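Me: Here is a favour to ask of a fellow structure person. Could you put it straight underneath, so I can go through it closely?

Assistant:
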Amino acid sequence: MASTTEPTVLKKEEEEEDEKPLADDEDTGAQIAPIVQLQEIAVTTGEENEDIILDLKSKLYRFDKEANQWKERGVGTVKLLKHKETGKVRLVMRQNKTLKICANHLVLPTMTVQEHHGNEKSCVWHAADFADGELKEENFCIRFPSIENCKSFKDKIEEITESLAKGSGESEEGTTAANLIEKLTVEEKDTEEKIEAKEAPLSSDEKKEKSSDEK
């Protein structure tokens, strides 16, 4: 009498063979066309005409005046960028992965960076920020992984602001000097015209008028 268990065993073995994954180098011969054709798209960040002068990982906070507390703005990389043509420097910070802008403002001569409540890894400053698409006065606090990075950030900001203040002062002095020279030139010209008019010989008509006045 034939065993009734053989077909069941074979069927089970076949199912197990079907469930085994194909070897990496095994070619099934099937041709699968991609469902969607993707094209490379050039992404612009607006930083193409700027040179990076500082690039540090950090966490940024913004002071919420209504709640009267610091709120996290994002974790990412803070950069100081100098424009290749104008020479202007701006601070830009983007969040990791999403690259959403957390801070975006110019570094001005009046900008000051101070240590935050005795924490050597954090510092605070005030700026007119444009991260949200409109100019807003913001108080920022930034925290770095190390004291060295925080010091590098503060020192670089101070270096830039001092350079801007010096350049602004030289520009004002140059303008004042130019105005003074122009004023002196005008005064000298007026004096020369008066002297020339005094020394110029009288015409015949002017002589007749002068003699008639003397009589």
